[in-house]
Design brief:
The protein has 83 residues and is an all-beta fold. The protein has one domain (2-74): Lipocalin, CATH 2.40.128. It contains no helices and eight strands. It has an eight-stranded antiparallel sheet with strand order 1-2-3-4-5-6-7-8, with no helix packed on it.
Length: 83
């Protein structure tokens, strides 16, 4: 999943061996740890990531809370592939 935090920064959410990771453009990858079913902690940054769902249940955006500042970040929808 890819999320735009601002015009120059994208956060990539990935899984590996049952673990969840977040990586922002130009930054290292960090494992994120659940605080609740929708909120996760980035220990190294003392930041929280909260996933928000659309009415259909899919992730629509996330909120990044870092150093007391909260940013809404919409999910990037991948374009359809023409065959």
């Amino acid at each position: 999943m890819s999320i735009n935090i601002d015009p120059n920064t994208t956060i990539f959410i990935t899984t590996e061996n049952g673990r969840l990771f977040a990586m922002a453009t130009g930054e290292p990858r960090f494992e994120i740890f659940p605080l609740s079913p929708t909120t996760f902690l980035v220990k190294e940054l003392n930041a929280k990531i909260t996933f928000l769902r659309a009415p259909d249940g899919t992730i629509s955006k996330l909120i990044v809370d870092m150093a007391g500042q909260k940013k809404d970040a919409p999910k990037i929808n991948k374009p359809a592939v023409n065959k």
